[in-house]
Amino acid sequence: MTDIERKRDRAAVPTDWTYAPAPESRDLVRLRERYGHFVGGGWIEPADTYATISPSTEETLATVGQGTAEDVDRAVAAARAAFANGWSSLPGSERAKYLFRIARLLQERSREFAVLESLNGGKPIKESRDVDLPLAAAHFFYYAGWADKLEYAFPNRRPAPLGVAAQIIPWNFPLLMLAWKLAPALACGNTVVLKPAETTPLTALLFCDVLRQAELPPGVVNVVTGDGRTGAALVEHDGIDKVAFTGSTEVGKSIQRQLAGTGKKLTLELGGKAANIVFDDCALDQAVEGIVNGIYFNQGHVCCAGSRLLAQESIYEPLVEKLKKRLETLRVGDPLDKNTDVGAINSKLQLERITELVEAGKEEGAEIFQPPCRLPEKGYWFAPTVFTNVAQSYRIAQEEIFGPVLSVLTFRTPEEAVEKANNTPYGLSAGVWTEKGSRILWMAQRLRAGVVWANTFNRFDPASPFGGYKESGFGREGGLHGLEPYLRFEE
Ligand code: NAI
Ligand code: MG
User: Fold this and answer.
1) Whether the Cβ atoms of residue 57 and residue 379 lie closer than 8 Å to each other
2) Mean pLDDT in the chain?
3) Which whole-number Å values give the CA distances from 434 to 130, 190, 277, in the listed order?
4) Strand 367-369 to strand 385-388: parallel, antiparallel, or no bridges (unpaired)?
5) From ligand 2's centre to the CA of 248, what distance in Å?
6) What integer is the mean pLDDT of 168-191?
């Protein structure tokens, strides 16, 4: 007999459900050993350098420039010259052609960019491949469409570009934040000096090659790498007309203080502590998926992460039980493995911040749950974490953790849910889970948050404006609203 038996001998039937490794190829990316700053369409040799690493292995990937005030000065001068020498007066339809080209090139090279994003930042390849890259390209496509329609977007207001925009971006979505910043600025006829975050400069540097391929005129986009000191030198520079910043509330506030009275325009996209509110009439399994996506997506390094779960008391127990079960199926590990759900923490510093806040949560009396998972020895890792028994006053309910850590609170009535959701200095996003359409609208009107998702979470679209209330910042990115911060109006 029997085939079946013979197969059994050879263990052709899986004995457990462990996935085999499915690594994406690293060879898709060819890195240089050393990068300078991208200024005036070419590379300038940095005076000072540092090593950028892979947070999942701690290996050095490349040496990059630590931008000085002098480097920043050269970049601003190049941007100013490009603004004056034709970019600002180019017909919108011509500017659009460059943006369309950039969008198409990002699509063509998306695998290469996705691998590099995961290597340098630690996020799972399936996220960089399926979220970051498609959205970055979509953003350029979207704003390419506006470039020749500004007169229609702002009728009778005579829109004109501002000049040189200084753009400072964070490490959680390096290429996507670059796209959010560059696309509207260029569509409106501005030139740019961009500073990527210190831990994730590589996709921005690779992007300079896309600019070369698109034949963007020299100096329209300049990239200076480095840490907060480079960012500060850029903000201080007299030659810039606008600052667009995404990052911590602390640095955002200091930039606002610094710019007061200078006439430079400012938009700030800062932290968040979003409530994900689950009512007892919702589709529970769907809500569990939304909660997981809300806080464990991108290791929780998301400004609009659903970091506070507000569960209606009547479903608290089954919800938490389902959630814990679901957590046990999350695969933590190699960012380049296509099966990975939760990758590496972006940096040692961020891991220390997360660890410190989680310790505070335990000390304050919250109950911690982490599924059993084996974390790699090298690199920076944190297991998906849920805190129950959380009081509103605890630090883990108030402060942005920016890691894979969820705090669960409860409520009884919609009024109480609103009050608790709004009990935060932030106001970036919120989620509502209920089958009742009228309740969704009732909640959305009362939640002090720039984005309110209903029966979904962490959904982005270039046509939809994104931004905060209160300490989450001001100004909107995306959509028609996202054009306005890059224009002045000659009314
Ligand atoms: P950060 O605000 O220091 O860094 C963000 C960007 O600002 C980076 O490019 C950095 O080089 C630059 N920067 C730092 N100091 C500056 C200064 N004085 N002037 C101009 N630019 C400056 O954020 P960090 O230290 O990386 O993270 C701290 C916390 O901030 C995180 O734990 C998280 O809670 C929050 N954060 C929020 C982000 C968001 O998307 N809203 C993004 C990154 C961090
Ligand atoms: Mg900082």
Assistant:
1) yes
2) 96
3) 27, 43, 9
4) antiparallel
5) 7
6) 98
**Ligand with minimal distance to 171 CA:** 1
Cα–Cα distance, 458 to 464 (Å, whole number): 12
Give pLDDT, residue 8: 53
Asked whether 54 and 378 are in contact (CB, 8 A), the reply is no
Helix, strand, or coil here: 464? coil
Question: Residue 418, Cβ neighbours under 10 Å: how many?
Answer: 21
Residues 218 and 189 sit within 8 Å (Cβ to Cβ): no
Does ligand 1 have an atom closer than 6 angstroms to the CB of 324? no
In angstroms, the CA 147 to CA 230 distance is 30
> Nearest-CA neighbor of 390 among 375, 376, 407, 405?
407
Atom of ligand 1 nearest to the CA of 235: 20
Which backbone phi and psi does 409 adopt, to 5 degrees?
-125, 170
Residue 335 in tokens: 């960012």
Q: Which residue out of 243, 251, 264 has the highest number of ligand 1 atoms within 8 Å of its CB and is therefore the one to mutate? A: 251
* CB of 172 shorter than 6 A to ligand 1: yes
Best CA proximity match to 433, nearest among 450, 419, 414? 414
pLDDT digits (tens, 9 = 90+) for 199-224: 999 999 999 999 999 999 999 999 99
Q: Per DSSP, what are the bridge partners of residue 243?
A: 166, 266
Residue 168 CB–ligand 1 contact under 6 Å: yes
Contacts of 41 (CB under 8 A, 6+ apart): 78, 211, 212, 216, 217, 218, 219
List of residues 6+ apart from 264 with CB closer than 8 A: 240, 241, 242, 243
Tokens of 163: 């000049």
